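Components:
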Amino acid sequence: MSAPKAQLEKLPRSMQFMLLLGALALAAFPFIPLTGGDFYLQMLSQMMILAIFAMSLDLLQGVTGMVSLGHAAYFGLAGYALAFLTPADMPISLWWALPVSALGAGLAALVIGFFVVRTHGIYFIMVTMAFAQMVFFLFFDNKALGGSDGVYVNFKPDATLFGWAGIDLENKTTFYYLTLLLLVGVYAFLRRLLFSPFGRVLAGIRVNEHRMRAVGYGTFGYKLAAFTLAGTLAGVAGFLWAAQTGYVNPELMGFHMSAHAIMMIILGGMGNFAGAIVGAFAFEYVMHFFKDLPYVGDFHLGKHWQLWMGLFIVAVVLVAPRGLLGLGERLLARKGDVK
Amino acid sequence: MDVANFLIQLLNSLQYGLLLFMLAAGLTLIFGIMGVVNLAHGSFYMLGAYMAWFLTAQLDSLVLAIVLGTVLAVALGWVLEWALFRHFYHRDHLDQVLLTFGLIYIFEEVRSILWGDDVHAVQVPEMVNWSIPLTENLSYPVYRLVISAVCIALALGLYGLISKTRLGMKIRAGAFNREMTESLGINIRLIHGVVFALGVALAAIAGMIASPIASVYPGMGSSVLIMCFVVVVIGGIGSVRGAFVAALLVGLVDTFGKVLLPQIAGMAVYMLMAVVLLYRPEGLFKQ
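Structure:
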């Protein structure tokens, strides 16, 4: 049972170019006239939010080698933070609601992390999942916290800055660009982090934690820091999700959400954050594709999307465990583009 | 809380704990011997409950339904091990997590296609559908005692199988050192198939015998799966004895938590797990 392997920490030129093209396409998208434009804008915004979420998990799963099956807890907690911070009669300022929500999620990750990062491998998987379920049931069982129905976010956050009200988040295009900005920002931050001394220690822990300890690193502190940071960034994504959909419910923190994030990273490719973005888009696309399947006779294929999704996941694990970027790399390598 | 009430809660916690043990035993055996983490274990519980409902309606007897359901569960376990799981013994835990997560989706949807998404109830068999009076207005249903008795019998059977029989010896040898066991001429693949089918059967039996007291509903597998994880983490992965002690402990904490501190009842079990993690990160009975 070796540690999960990260690939392509250094992205080949061709792949960097493709990512840049993708980012430009996303930036240009609102200018392309489409029927049902708002629908696609919202869908892409959601994909970008999930990409931020997947990247935050990749810091644990791909970089540090800690497979968390409870990462959605921090995503959901920040969403709930926004829902409870927003007053009933007026919007709340983005400039302090976002940091407070994200740091709140980070604080929860710090507390839970204190218990879970002591464990390894399979224990870590089970324990992160169990604690996430604890948070899930805390909200699910308590009427005061919204119960199983969840809570509405009454207003989108207000982005007025020093009296300048130029940014209106009620506008879907503006919200789209805010999400894109944060996606690029988080990506740039995590890429820097990956090659910083801190990121190198995390990668070292993935490869051989005992050796890192022997060299003199207090791995507990590093792992806890990574867990907290990942929780905080998941909180950024969860905050955006709640602001965009205007609604939070316990499902956001559920086991399926956590597993989907893992799947996104696997689908894209682990340990380089670009894969997490590609995987999030691909996963969401596949999910929409399955949900929109037509009727065949009396049998509604789309209603049973979980069956196709399940078969798809099993097929990916069997056929392409290194993800889309891994496949891409293999194809590129054949052309002699990378070593 | 008076004596009669206390006794009822104690019996309830025992019954819940024993049921959890049936599930956790399979999970911990499959992990301990094959090194596979199986998220779909809760699905076997769910499928068991639905089989009990469906077969009871067809055969008009819960006992017959459980016998037939057990045979089907063994067959399902055997086929799954042969077709999928045996290719994952040497893969990352991450791959195993994803494979079994995909299986959860597949099982849920197959259940939905075969039997729909409705909530069902299973009738308690006539013979044990009565209660033992404790005081003038408190009584204890006999069927719950039957569940506990069946679980205890199966637990003893499992203990006997693993520690007293030749097959059990081979299983223990396989868990201890796979290559060495194989080189001694023991068909380890057969052992793995047997253990996996046994684990699936135990989970399905738990679902079947629990179906008359807990309604049969979609998603019943996932809540029980989490509890199994807690049990296995507290008990120590791979240890059947640990799973037994931990399951009873979780049953006690959960049942009495609901009575004494209803506000945080849902969290009590997780707090127990957190405390165990602080002092014994590898569980109470690490092997």
